[in-house]
Amino acid sequence: MTDRELDAAGIGDPALRAAYRHCRALNARHGKTYFLATRLLPVERRPAVHALYGFARWADDIVDCLGPGADTGRRAAALTGLRRSLGEGLRDGHSHEPVVLALADTARRYGIEPALFHDFMSAMSADLTVTDYADYGALRGYMHGSAAVIGLQMLPVLGTVVPREEAAPYAAELGVAFQLSNFLRDVGEDLDRGRVYLPADLLAGHGVDRELLRWSRDTGRHEPRITSALREFEALTRGVYRQALPGLAMLAPVSRPCIRTAFLLYRGILDAVARDGYSVLHRRAVVPRRRRAAVAADGLARAVAARLRAGRSPAPCPPHAPAPGTPCPPAAKEVM
């Protein structure tokens, strides 16, 4: 976290500044796509985004990356400790854990509902015991806590030009779209962790089950039935992106370039998977560097233009929570 970002956000306490820097480092190391997009936000909003994603990254690492010797009991104990620390931080604003300290400060500054963080922790706990999902409805239930709430946490930081409750369903849907892209890209890695996030009924409709996925992963051989199932999951995910798209125009203009860039890069994962022949059981699909650079450059140009216009436009709804029913200026049309 740069001093410029922290100063712009009004974060002066040395312990808080160190906590936010810690969150930024987590995101720079693990969340390269969203870290890149975050650079397009106004400087004063970046620390809050790093706090939100830093916390999510940390909890996810407890579930997936605690260490080769960590059994379910140890992971559950670590999540319980984090949940306890989270509750205390949200209640008192204090914590010995840097990530929780920054998160609690962000939640207070932007009026983010504590329930969103508790729902997220419940989803992380589910990953310790739930290894597959019978259908898309069941998967959506899990993704409320693992993905939709992330979009809802972000919304107060981004700001809107419509009442926040109008933009909320689209923000939640975009969080789901991002996670569905990751599920498709990470089928092989998730299988190695004992989890299958593709709905069982979707797989069964193509004659695919966990055993066939495991066979393909272990042998490196392609199977047309698996490719067909993955293609259907890709189409399903693209539909979620279409549902989320109208929400971009509801965001504060200075925030749109960031989220538009994330939208294009995460959706680009689907293109990369298709271009690689749906070989997600054998290798990780990657958005080409040239494409990432082009999207980032376009996002930067849009961000600069939005900031120049900001002084000549009606103010959007502030990033802090407006009172229910507070009118905002109408949303400008956003062109992808």
Automatic annotation (TrEMBL):
Gene3D superfamilies: Farnesyl Diphosphate Synthase. It holds the Pfam family SQS_PSY. Residues 311-336 are annotated as: Disordered. Transmembrane segments: none annotated. InterPro entries: Isoprenoid_synthase_dom_sf, Squ/phyt_synthse, Squalene/phytoene_synthase_CS, Trans_IPPS_bact-type, Trans_IPPS_HH. Keywords: Transferase. Pathway: Carotenoid biosynthesis; phytoene biosynthesis. Residues 315-330 have a biased composition (Pro residues). It comes from the Bacteria. PANTHER family: BIFUNCTIONAL LYCOPENE CYCLASE/PHYTOENE SYNTHASE. This is Phytoene/squalene synthase family protein.
